[in-house]
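cache lookup: miss for this entity combination. No prior model stored, computing from scratch. Input as submitted by user K.M.:
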Amino acid sequence: MADNKRIDHPTGTETVGHEWDGIEELNTPLPRWWLWTFYATVVFAIGYCVVYPTIPTANGAPGGKLNWSSRDELEKTLVARQTELKPIHAALAATDIAALPGKPELMSQAIAGGAAAFKVHCVQCHGSGAVGSKGYPNLNDDDWLWGGDLATLEKTIADGIRQPEHKATRFSQMPAFGRDGILQPAQVDDVTSYVRVLAKQERPSTSSARGGSLYSANCAVCHGPDGTGMRSQGAPNLTDGIWLYGGDRDTIRQTITNSRYGVMPAWNLHLDTVTIRMLAAYVHSLGGGEAAPAPTPAPADATAAAAPAEAANGGG
Amino acid sequence: MAEADPDITDSALGQYQKRKSVFPKAVDGTFRRLKWAIMVVTLTIYYVTPWLRWDRGPYAPDQAVLVDLAHRRFFMFDIEIWPHEFYFVAGLLVMAGIGLFLVTSAVGRAWCGYACPQTVWTDLFQHIERAVDGDRNAAIRLQNAPWGPAKIARRLLKWSIWLAVSMGTGGAWIFYFADAPTLMHDFLHGTAAPVAYMTVFVLTMTTFIFGGFMREQVCIYMCPWPRIQTAMMDEKSLLVTYRHWRGEPRGSLKQAQAKPGAIGDCIDCNQCVAVCPTGIDIREGPQIGCITCALCIDACDTVMAQVGRPRGLIDYVTFEDASKEQEGQPTTPILKTLFRPRTLAYFAIWGGIGLALLFALGNRTRLDISAQHDRNPLFVRMSDGSVRNAYTVKLRNMESRPRTVRVTMEGAPQARMWLGETGSREAAARSFEANLAPDAVTKLRLFVVSPAGDGGRQEFALVVQANDDAAPSDKHELVLERGGE
């Protein structure tokens, strides 16, 4: 077949001698420079293999005269970024958190840094949108267990919740009213009714009336006579529609019977001051941040402190 | 010409073919002058444009044409394009594409012959070559001469000039991407960005190699456009054609005198081949190497005038007219050829897109609002039972001056809003004011709260209006989620 070479008249080019259903192929020569270009790419490839790590071995792809590696590249990028952030971090370290709102630019940098740190350290419990879940407070709303202003948030994050080995930690403990026999199961039921009346989830009943006097005797010391809670004890407001563990009868009954004991790490053991400050700024920016510390009523009896339902760093 | 002699190309075809150097002869004529004019216009546009100034006030660059990649802005005289308006550029590219269809279907490979940068710079380099080496014959003699001091000197001189032109070409390119005088200063002082030097180097080398050494090889082997153009041409497209029915059989003037009537108009002087910048013989018929620069028409017309024969032995002729002429039929008038349904349709599409772009340009707003609803969480229930939604609002002030705008809510009558950065829930209202930086996007975090018992999901819109002018305001439709209540 390859013997049927002929000169194609319109082009004056020789054919390769093959023919498929009347279609023939011209044996058009490649331009000479194309060949040189090809050799040049070969030379380039050899050079590339010499200066960059190219040949995979069991221990990665070592070598390369330039000692280039993507890890080094990443390292350099990170170091460069850290250098870039240094002045911001220095400014943050030198600024009291309560003064941050007066420096909008530094504040927005702190919020951005906090958002990044939040994604690393906080999302495991509070969720990526900081909405929390059962037992882990939603940080977006305006219900705070320990207070929602910048300074309080910073302290809560730094010292953690219920870390007995950490002196400055936020601490309170609600008695397990049912389990420890302080209240009988029927009484627990009555208190449950009363709490649900406080939260406007139930109409007053004889049960809630009985529960009312039990509440005054046992619960009001921390949760307040009107049920609005006490921040110095991390005692949640029982009158709002926000529940950390749930507002149905069963859950409330369980909470009163066994108590709750939410914890959060003391982050100043793990993170530097600036990161904690940035985290506080970020949490504050989520929408429920408060302007100034709420007035703190003197705790009636700190040892008998009882914080039922909610626990954890700050949100409710 | 279908019976082309096989000998006209390399008979001993190897695997690879060496480039045959082309030394086109200088020529003068109508088309050569047209090429000069187009070369002057295109090169002037290319080199001068970045240096034109255009006052846009204190907040915008004063360069008339600037592709500001760092700040993602494209300035062209009075028009400023933002990244989200890139469809204007896309529209221009579509117009350029259809424009090529139009030109190709009407006048064939006119782009290749006159306006393509490869053609323009090759032409320029060939002029330089002729100035240094002399015209065709002298250049060929020099090429074939053994290397000696004289030849080396000439070559060095020619290459230096080429390199200077190439550097100018590569250098001009970068000025489109930064303030030209500043960049020129930085470039000369060695303080410009590395990418500037690299760009200049790459473009210098490509210009030097493509214009000086590759030339027609680029058109024949590297460029896809000549192959695509074939699909756009038809039997009514103008084509540089050798009227073989008039010229053949070719013979010298002496032969023609000896045998009157037996010899055609072509005196076989080879001038058409001598002037061809791609080194082809147009008398072999249409071919991929022909960029239709029409220099052979000028050369042949000159010769025909000298020997007292009518011009146009080589001329722009359509395929259709070529066969009509051979059969002695009347040919189509040139205007009828140019203004035929196909070209008119291309023109209508081209013009339609152009008008649509102009209309869009005249109607675009220079103040834009867009907002994105937070998805995690979609809504937040507050202590008092109200429901809060959060949005990221982007306000684009596309004018080169600071402006104060008012953003107002439409719909969701019970809802109130405040800005996360500066506002507070206590000061929530139905509208807010924002100060926008010139020619920038201002990003704001917006909270919207609606009281308990306000029903379910609601729709509302944010409307932005500049305080200082009555230009049409922009509006963004949003949803207020309230969950199940």
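stored under new cache key. The CA atoms of residues 374 and 391 of chain B lie 5 Å apart.
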